[in-house]
Amino acid sequence: MQGAYILATGSAVPDSTISNHQISQFVETSDQWIVTRTGIKERRLLTGYNQSVIDLAVIASKRALQKIDMNPHDIDLIILATSSPNDLFGSASQVQAKIQAVNAVAFDLTAACSGFVLSLVTATQFIQNGTYSTVLIIGADVLSKWTNWNDRGTCILFGDGAGAVILQACPYLENAILGFNLNTNGQYSNQLSISYKEDKLVNLNLPIMQGSFDYITMNGKEVYKFAVSQVPLSILKCLNNLNISIDNIDWLLLHQANERILTAIADKLSIDLRKVISNVSKYGNTSAASIPLALDEALYQNKIKKNDLIIISGFGAGLTWGTVIVKWIY
Ligand code: COA
């Protein structure tokens, strides 16, 4: 079995920002309410005609490639974690074409805010079993396109962005993806969803129903309780399996949903808040993008050092949640 490690990261966010104050001009809310309940101050929104998740994913990917001067022809596999593709058949192939990764097979992985964690685990399997050597994993979402901007319960939370990592087979058989724990409870899928609604009957002798996707709907309180109760359990299971003590952890990198959730999970695990990586105040919840975006920023700020142990956990619609423990080895 060959090991896997993260070799490079990149990220991209749109230029346009929307502040809490701006949101308070079209729904009844306030900067104070949003900051107190979520820690979010502003988010980035993809604006302009014909702009899609692909544009952000391509920029993030190119930035990761440029950092290590890698030829895109060297990529074997591209996994695009997104729940906001611009083609229901998948968007990864368009990213493949745009970055000219001509030798890569490419597919989308839909797992909402856990999409990056599931993609990282999936990519690791391909590397560890020796099938592929170099995988580009992108978490990218433009949930602004699926947000009901009249719903103050959800429109305050989400922002657009993309983050990319290049995962590669390790030299010298070292392995940086130490272990993982993944979970799904589909009984609660209705707590957070962008559901398909049928509203049209096409009568071709057979009654075929057609429709379209709705806006994001969410039971905020239940999702909050789910995250704060289940994510620490996933982390502890993962650490126990690896025989790693929580005291040896250097960084807690959670899906950036809400500052209160990050703090509550850290408190439950008795992790010092200085070890919690957070940029949710600037970008809001960017779904599958949030973890690689925060990782890229933390590396840029020189926070993460060689041999640091990082807990990476994602959680969200599905409901699906999971943890990967990573050792930073470069
Ligand atoms: N501005 C002002 N008031 C708001 C509001 C807003 N944006 N949204 C809701 N309210 C009101 C409600 O109408 C309610 O009023 P009432 O008491 O008169 O009925 C009150 O504030 C409390 O609403 P509630 O929904 O109970 O608030 P909350 O404390 O649960 O906070 C969330 C709401 C969404 C911030 C919180 O539930 C949360 O963060 N949940 C997790 C969401 C999440 O992270 N989802 C993605 C996971 S991947």
Automatic annotation (TrEMBL):
<feature type="domain" description="Beta-ketoacyl-[acyl-carrier-protein] synthase III N-terminal">
    <location>
        <begin position="107"/>
        <end position="186"/>
    </location>
</feature>
<keyword id="KW-0012">Acyltransferase</keyword>
<feature type="region of interest" description="ACP-binding">
    <location>
        <begin position="256"/>
        <end position="260"/>
    </location>
</feature>
<dbReference type="Pfam" id="PF08545">
    <property type="entry name" value="ACP_syn_III"/>
</dbReference>
<dbReference type="GO" id="GO:0005737">
    <property type="term" value="C:cytoplasm"/>
</dbReference>
<dbReference type="GO" id="GO:0006633">
    <property type="term" value="P:fatty acid biosynthetic process"/>
</dbReference>
<dbReference type="Pfam" id="PF08541">
    <property type="entry name" value="ACP_syn_III_C"/>
</dbReference>
<dbReference type="GO" id="GO:0033818">
    <property type="term" value="F:beta-ketoacyl-acyl-carrier-protein synthase III activity"/>
</dbReference>
<dbReference type="InterPro" id="IPR016039">
    <property type="entry name" value="Thiolase-like"/>
</dbReference>
<comment type="subunit">
    <text>Homodimer.</text>
</comment>
<dbReference type="InterPro" id="IPR013751">
    <property type="entry name" value="ACP_syn_III_N"/>
</dbReference>
<protein>
    <recommendedName>
        <fullName>Beta-ketoacyl-[acyl-carrier-protein] synthase III</fullName>
        <ecNumber>2.3.1.180</ecNumber>
    </recommendedName>
</protein>
<dbReference type="GO" id="GO:0004315">
    <property type="term" value="F:3-oxoacyl-[acyl-carrier-protein] synthase activity"/>
</dbReference>
<feature type="active site">
    <location>
        <position position="255"/>
    </location>
</feature>
<keyword id="KW-0276">Fatty acid metabolism</keyword>
<comment type="similarity">
    <text>Belongs to the thiolase-like superfamily. FabH family.</text>
</comment>
<feature type="active site">
    <location>
        <position position="285"/>
    </location>
</feature>
<dbReference type="InterPro" id="IPR013747">
    <property type="entry name" value="ACP_syn_III_C"/>
</dbReference>
<keyword id="KW-0511">Multifunctional enzyme</keyword>
<keyword id="KW-0963">Cytoplasm</keyword>
<keyword id="KW-0444">Lipid biosynthesis</keyword>
<feature type="active site">
    <location>
        <position position="113"/>
    </location>
</feature>
<comment type="function">
    <text>Catalyzes the condensation reaction of fatty acid synthesis by the addition to an acyl acceptor of two carbons from malonyl-ACP. Catalyzes the first condensation reaction which initiates fatty acid synthesis and may therefore play a role in governing the total rate of fatty acid production. Possesses both acetoacetyl-ACP synthase and acetyl transacylase activities. Its substrate specificity determines the biosynthesis of branched-chain and/or straight-chain of fatty acids.</text>
</comment>
<comment type="function">
    <text>Catalyzes the condensation reaction of fatty acid synthesis by the addition to an acyl acceptor of two carbons from malonyl-ACP. KAS III catalyzes the first condensation reaction which initiates fatty acid synthesis and may therefore play a role in governing the total rate of fatty acid production. Possesses both acetoacetyl-ACP synthase and acetyl transacylase activities.</text>
</comment>
<keyword id="KW-0443">Lipid metabolism</keyword>
<comment type="pathway">
    <text>Lipid metabolism; fatty acid biosynthesis.</text>
</comment>
<feature type="domain" description="Beta-ketoacyl-[acyl-carrier-protein] synthase III C-terminal">
    <location>
        <begin position="241"/>
        <end position="328"/>
    </location>
</feature>
<keyword id="KW-0934">Plastid</keyword>
<keyword id="KW-0275">Fatty acid biosynthesis</keyword>
<dbReference type="InterPro" id="IPR004655">
    <property type="entry name" value="FabH"/>
</dbReference>
<keyword id="KW-0808">Transferase</keyword>
